[in-house]
Design brief:
Structural class of chain A: alpha/beta
Strand content of chain A: 5-15%
Structural class of chain B: alpha+beta
Number of helices of chain B: 12
Number of domains of chain A: 2
Number of domains of chain B: 2
Number of strands of chain A: 6
Shape of chain A: elongated
Radius of gyration of chain A: 30 Å
Distance between the termini of chain B: 28 Å
Helix content of chain A: 40-55%
Order of helices and strands of chain B: HHEHEEEHEEHEHEEEEEHEHHHHH
Number of helices of chain A: 11
Radius of gyration of chain B: 33 Å
Oligomer: heterodimer
C-alpha cells in the first residue's frame, strides 16, 4: 500500500519538486479530473526498476491511472505540508520526518479514485457519508498560498476572514476563527522538533562543557609540566607572546586531531542511528557543512580551553625554572 | 589521615583543584539526571497494556477492489480465521493497544455541558474482551444485539434517529474511577455527542490506548459496540498460544489469501512487535543516555588521571623527602587517595545543587517529575568510586618514588 496525495498542479512548482522524467500534470488535467499521476522516485524504482515509466499505467483501487511524471529523489524534512496535530503528540513528532507520498494525483481525481476510503477527523457537524470528504463538515483540506508581499498577506487574511463570515452566514461553518500561519509558524505550532531531540541537544552541550573543563585541566598540567623547558626558551630570548602562541598552536592541534577523531566517531554514531527503525533514519548523514561546523567548533573550543593554560605558561618566570634545572 | 595538610596543598593549586571540582560537579549533576531519565523511560516502557500480549497477533489487509458488502466480508474473514488450527479467539478492531493510530472521543457526563470532561479512546469491534484477554471486573461483556453497523449509526446520527445508534459501552476501571470516584459506574451514561449517550454495562480491568503518550491518561478507554466493515484500517486480532504464534500467523495469512487472492496484507505482527515499535524511541533514548553516562564517567576519570599524574610528577621531590623522613608507601598512597576523596566530595556537593537545578529546568520544559532523593547518593557513590579508581594508578606511582630522590639535585 502506498500513501497518496491529492493536490493541484501548482504544488510541484510552488515547492520546487524536481522531476526525473516527464512533468507535472497541467491545470487542464486538473479541471477535467484526468486519471493521471506523478510518482516518487522510490515507487518508480520499486515498480519499474528506475526506468522511464511516463505513459505507463498504474492500477489504483478500481481506476487505471496514467503516469505523467516521475520525481527525482525529493526529501523535505520535515514533510512540512503533511505536518498536523503535533500539539497533541506530547513531543513525539518524529513521524513528521517520513518520506513524501508515493503517488500524487490531481485534487479531484484523487478524491474520486479513493472515494469512500477517507477518514474524517476534526468535524463540527454530522458526517452525511462516511469516507466522503467533499462537503463534509470537517477539516479536510490543507491550503498553501504563496504571497510575495506584506500587503498581499494582509489582503489575504481579510479575504479568509470574510470568507469564514460568509460561510457562517450560509450556515456551513460553525465558527469564524481564522488563522494563517507562515510556514515556520506552522512548524513551531506543531512542535516539529521532537522533545527527545531537544533534550539530546542540551545533553550534547553539557557534554561539551565537561570536556572543556577536562581539557583546561589537562592542558594546564601539560604546559606547566614543561615549565623548565619554557624557562629555557624564555631565557634564550623567547617573548611571552611567543610562548603563548606556541601553547595555543598546541591546543589548536589537539582540537584538529580531536575533531578528526570525533568525525570518525560521528560516522559510527550515524551508522547506529540509521539502523534504528525511525522515520528520519535515512536522513542521518553528515554533510560537508555540518562536518565543517563541528570541526570548527572543536578547534574553537580547544583554543578557548587553551587560553588560560597558555596564559599561565607564558607567565612562567625563567629564573626560577633555570635554577631548578 | 590528616586532612589539613592536604587542604593547604590544594590551596596552592587553586586553579587545577577548582577545575577538577567543577568537572566532577558537572558530571555528577548530569549523571544524576541521566540515570533518572533512564529510570523514567524504563518505567514508561513497562506500561501495562491489560491484554495478553504474548498470545496476540495483528493482521491488516487491504482490498484492491472495494467489497460490495464490507460487513459480510468482515464476518467471512473472521470465520475463516477462526477455523485456522491453533487459533483460540478472533476479534476485529478499529485500533490496537500501543498501535499509535487511534479513534478518540470527547466525553461529557451531561449532554448540555459546554466543555468536555476528558478525552478517551474508543475501540470499535466484536469479541474484543475475550480475544484481548482483558478481565471483566463487573457488569457484562458486549453482546451481539448491542452492535450496530457503523453505516446505520452514521445515518441515524444524520436523521436524528437514536434507535440506530449504539446504546451501551464498556469502560476501564481507571476511567470509571476518574469519572465517578468511589461510585458504581454501571448504569451511568457517557455522552460522546449530545445525542449519543452510552450506558456503562461493564467495567474491564485494564485496556491501554493506542496513543498512550501520557501515562496518566493511558487507560482512558471505552469499547463501543459499533460494527465496522472490512477495510484497510480494520485489524484482525488473533489469540493463540505463545509458542504457536509464528505458525498460526503464517496459516492465518494463507487462509486469508485463499479466501481472496487479490488483496494485500499491510500489517502482520505479534503484539511483542507492536510494543517494541511503540516504545522504540524510549528504548533508543535510554540506550543513548547509558552511552552518555559511560562516556562522561570515562572522560572525567581520564581528567582525574591526567591531573593526578601531573601532581605526582610535580611533587616527586616532596614525596622523596617525606619517604626519607619515614613515611611509608602506604602513607603516600593514602595521601593521594584522600586528596582525591576530598576533591570528589567538594565536587559532589556542588554537583547535587547543580543536579537539582537541572531537574528544575527539565521539570519546567519537559513535564518531568521531581528528581527523587534516592538518585543523589547513586551519583555520589558513582563519582567517589570513579575518582578512587582513576587516582589509584598515579597514587601507586607516587608510592613507588624511592626515598633516594630526596638526596638528588637538591
Amino acid at each position: 500500500m502506498v500513501p497518496m496525495l491529492a493536490t493541484t498542479s501548482e504544488f510541484f512548482a510552488m515547492f520546487k519538486v524536481p522531476f526525473q522524467y516527464g512533468s507535472a500534470w497541467t491545470a487542464a488535467d486538473g479541471s477535467s479530473r484526468a486519471r493521471v499521476a506523478v510518482i516518487s522516485s522510490d515507487l518508480n524504482d520499486k515498480l519499474f526498476g528506475g526506468a522511464n515509466s511516463v505513459g505507463k499505467t498504474l492500477r489504483l483501487k478500481d481506476s487505471d491511472v496514467r503516469i505523467v511524471g516521475v520525481m527525482k529523489r525529493w526529501r523535505p524534512s520535515p514533510l512540512f505540508y503533511d505536518v498536523r496535530g503535533g500539539r497533541f503528540a506530547e513531543g513525539q513528532t518524529s513521524s513528521f520526518y517520513v518520506k513524501p507520498e508515493g503517488v500524487f494525483m490531481p485534487f479531484f481525481s484523487g478524491l474520486e479514485v479513493n472515494e469512500g476510503n477517507f477518514w474524517q477527523f476534526t468535524c463540527w457537524g454530522k458526517v452525511a457519508t462516511p469516507g466522503h470528504l467533499q462537503d463534509a463538515p470537517c477539516v479536510w483540506v490543507g491550503l498553501w498560498v504563496q504571497l510575495d508581499s506584506a500587503t498581499k498577506v494582509a489582503d489575504y487574511r481579510t479575504f479568509i476572514a470574510n470568507y469564514a463570515q460568509q460561510q457562517k452566514l450560509l450556515g456551513r461553518f460553525a465558527n469564524t476563527d481564522t488563522r494563517m500561519p507562515s510556514l515556520m509558524q506552522w512548524l513551531v505550532f506543531n512542535h516539529v522538533v521532537p522533545s527527545d531531540v531537544k533534550l539530546q541537544t542540551w545533553l550534547a552541550f553539557a557534554f561539551l562543557a565537561i570536556c572543556l573543563f577536562n581539557m583546561i585541566g589537562l592542558l594546564l598540567a601539560k604546559f606547566l609540566r614543561r615549565s623548565s623547558e619554557i624557562g629555557v626558551r624564555r631565557a634564550l630570548g623567547a617573548s611571552r607572546g611567543a610562548i603563548f602562541a606556541q601553547c595555543l598552536v598546541e591546543a589548536g592541534m589537539v582540537g584538529v586531531v580531536g575533531g578528526i577523531g570525533g568525525w570518525l566517531l560521528t560516522l559510527l554514531g550515524l551508522w547506529l542511528v540509521r539502523r534504528q527503525p525511525v522515520e528520519y533514519a535515512d536522513l542521518a548523514h553528515l554533510d560537508i557543512g555540518m562536518f565543517g561546523l563541528t570541526l570548527a567548533l572543536a578547534v574553537a573550543a580547544s583554543l578557548a580551553a587553551g587560553l588560560l593554560p597558555a596564559l599561565r605558561a607564558s607567565r612562567v618566570a625563567p629564573a626560577l625554572q633555570l635554577k631548578t634545572l | 589521615m590528616d586532612i589539613l595538610p592536604i587542604l593547604s596543598t590544594l590551596r596552592r593549586h587553586k586553579l587545577t583543584s577548582w577545575l577538577l571540582v567543577l568537572e566532577i560537579a558537572l558530571t555528577c549533576a548530569i549523571v544524576c539526571n541521566a540515570v533518572f531519565l533512564i529510570g523514567q523511560r524504563l518505567q514508561r516502557m513497562d506500561m501495562p497494556s491489560g491484554v495478553a500480549e504474548h498470545e496476540l497477533l495483528q493482521i491488516q489487509v487491504a482490498d484492491v477492489t472495494t467489497p460490495s458488502n464490507p460487513y459480510a466480508r468482515l464476518a467471512e474473514d473472521v470465520a475463516v480465521l477462526r477455523h485456522v488450527p491453533g487459533v483460540l479467539s478472533v476479534a476485529s478492531s478499529n485500533q490496537v493497544p500501543f498501535g499509535n493510530s487511534s479513534s478518540n472521543g470527547n466525553i461529557r457526563l451531561d449532554p448540555a455541558q459546554p466543555e468536555r470532561t476528558l478525552n478517551a479512546t474508543t475501540y470499535f469491534g466484536e469479541n474484543l474482551v475475550p480475544t484481548l484477554g482483558t478481565r471483566l471486573v463487573s457488569g457484562r461483556d458486549l453482546q451481539s444485539d448491542d452492535f450496530v453497523d457503523v453505516e446505520t449509526a452514521m445515518k441515524g446520527l444524520g436523521n436524528g434517529d437514536s434507535k440506530s445508534l449504539p446504546h451501551v459501552t464498556l469502560i476501564t476501571r481507571t476511567l470509571a474511577e476518574r469519572l465517578w470516584p468511589g461510585q458504581n459506574p454501571l448504569g451511568r451514561i457517557i455522552y460522546l455527542t449530545p445525542v449519543v449517550g452510552l450506558r456503562v454495562v461493564g467495567v474491564v480491568d485494564s485496556l491501554v490506548r493506542p496513543n498512550a503518550y501520557d501515562t496518566a491518561k493511558a487507560q482512558y478507554t471505552m469499547i463501543v459496540p459499533l460494527r465496522m466493515g472490512a477495510s484497510k484500517d480494520q485489524s484482525y486480532l488473533i489469540r493463540t498460544r505463545p509458542e504457536d504464534r509464528a505458525s498460526v500467523l503464517a496459516a492465518a495469512l494463507a487462509a486469508l489469501k485463499k479466501a481472496d487472492p487479490q488483496r494485500v496484507v499491510t500489517t502482520q505482527r505479534s503484539f511483542d512487535e507492536v510494543r517494541r515499535r511503540f516504545f522504540q524511541d524510549d528504548r533508543a533514548m535510554a540506550g543513548m543516555l547509558v552511552g552518555v553516562i559511560a562516556a562522561l564517567l570515562i572522560v572525567t576519570a581520564l581528567g582525574i588521571v591526567g591531573l593526578a599524574s601531573f601532581w605526582v610528577a610535580q611533587r616527586r621531590r616532596t614525596i622523596g623527602v617525606r619517604r626519607a623522613l619515614g613515611a611509608t608507601r602506604g602513607n603516600i598512597l593514602h595521601y593521594f587517595q584522600t586528596e582525591n576523596f576530598v576533591l570528589a566530595t567538594f565536587g559532589i556537593a556542588l554537583g547535587m545543587v547543580l543536579a537539582y537545578g537541572i531537574n528544575l529546568f527539565l521539570m519546567s520544559h519537559y513535564e518531568l517529575p521531581r528528581l527523587p532523593g534516592a538518585y543523589f547518593p547513586v551519583g555520589a557513590v558513582l563519582l567517589w568510586l570513579i575518582g578512587q579508581v582513576a587516582v589509584l594508578g598515579p597514587a601507586l606511582r607516587a608510592a613507588a618514588v624511592p626515598p633516594v630522590v630526596a638526596t638528588r639535585s637538591v
